[in-house]
Amino acid sequence: MLKRTLIMTCAAFALSNLFAIEETKLSMELWNRYTMSIKNGNASTSSISLERGYFGLEPKFTDKVKGRFTLDFFSSAMSVTIDKKKTAITDGVAIKLKYAYLQYNPHELLSLLFGLQKNYFGTIYDWDYTTIKGDPADIYHWCASTDYGIGLFSYLPKGMGDIALQVLNGEGYKKSLSAVNAYPKFQGNLRFLPVAGIMAGGSFAYNMVTPKKADMTWVGVLKLAFGPFSVLGQYLGQKNHSEISSMVISGMPVLSIGKIAKNKFHLDLTGRFDYSDKDTSKSNNETYALIGGINHAFVISSKGTPDAWWQINYECPDINAKTLNHVLMAQLRWKFGHTLKS
Amino acid sequence: MNLIKKSLNLMLSAGMLFSVANAQAVLNMVGSTTVLPIAQLAAEVYMEKNDSLKISVGGGGSGVGVAAIMNGRTDIGMASRPAQTKEIVTAKANGINLFENAVAVDAITIVVHPEVGALVKNLTIAQIRDIYTGKISSWAEVGGPKKPIVVVSRDVSSGTFEVFKEKVLGGGKVKNDALMLASNKAVATAVGTTPFSIGYVGLAFLSPEIAAVTVDSVESNEENARSGKYKISRKLYMYTNGKPKGKIKDFLDFLLSAEGQALVVKTGYIAVK
Q1: What is the pTM (predicted TM-score) of this model?
Q2: What does the pLDDT look like over B79-89, one tens digit per residue?
Q3: d(C-alpha B18, C-alpha A195), whole Å
């Protein structure tokens, strides 16, 4: 109900301002991926897919009112959730709604968000897929990247960081109607940047499952970035409504060879380690995932951001498993866009 | 044996020549088209004095200048507006310290086609806002001929537009049929060749083909821009990653020296020192 009301409000506002749009950004980003999985010594997957195909519209009505609408077209083997049932793609393509929100900025630092918006939790809201694998909170299913709700986001003065408070459905962007319970999720996030190269922060989410039970999830984040080297560390914890406690520790170092070579080329070496324990009260259910990869950008915009780049990742999902499994992924990401001015 | 020696000598010489060719240091600057004339002239003069340094200068707008520094794409990012909070936060998270070096002062000057300039000598901030937002559509409403006003503006991604928007438009939106152009030069040319037009440019782009009007009866000149009496003035910046060092510092020291600031004045802007 909350979702419908929010979308109706956004749509009504957008329509009423249709002829007052100052500019509209159009954008497209595509991820073509090859995946090979080896399980128990045999290749279980070897396929090429369109993992993401984001088509975005960002109308700017005035300096204070903007909107964002993004559809995700994909042809991967990912299944979609409809009424709590997972349904495989049968027509070779599917569409998901990723963003649909209206943003009101009463002050240059402050934004109020209404609709399907970013989930300001940990690093999921600005995760740029330095490794092909998603944000830890996302892949361990503790938090979806976007969700329906109302949010307040503000930068701290003098670029000292940012803060966000949100009331959300709690089930993420893939679920709607009867898959969404009647109880909201409350969330807060704070990031602090005392000096360039040091970022520390954390988030806390209280997701009500019943009037008396809730999933509580928290994360601490530390990022250090100096010269060509950066490392991102995260500690995530959860105590769910069944009183089961879980934890994840993730570390991601990145070495920019391109920066060392004074931007003559754009090559990054990436690594990642994820330690996960699904139930801290029990032993022998931990996993240790290891990832190594290369990112190479071969089309760079005038702003210095990549417009087309390759990513190659090797992942061992659990280095402590009796039989090691392996995943090899190669991904071509490319994007383009245009701003229409009225 | 001699052949091997000769070959080695040749290879060594070639290598040395290659090293010498590559020894020429390069300084890259991109960004604001407003700051561009200063950068071009300063680079030209500085390279004459330092033949070991090659300076590459490019435009693109203030947004490109700041983003290029944030992404380690350039040594100096030129901007005609201060860096935004969002840019500062993103840069800091990636270990980049957007360091602000003010190199000049500019007064955004309101210009009109000379035919209009013969009659309209002054506009108030409120009148300019109303012209740009479409509330005033005829020159007759501000003492000019009974002709519709042709509004010329910078495009929304330019730093000049952002300053104009903040200091003149307030929360207002430029009327839909305004000509949105990509550079100061394009605006100056359009106003000079389009009868009954109005635009705004940096001081360096004034020419006999266009007529400057006073704003709230204050002329856009050095004295009024420095004192703050002229309301639509701003500083021009060259952003660096942290406090400038090495060849970047040497160049900026030159630009901020008496000789460098004389070049700023020569391009039509106001010295910051």
Answers
A1: 0.81
A2: 999 999 999 99
A3: 41
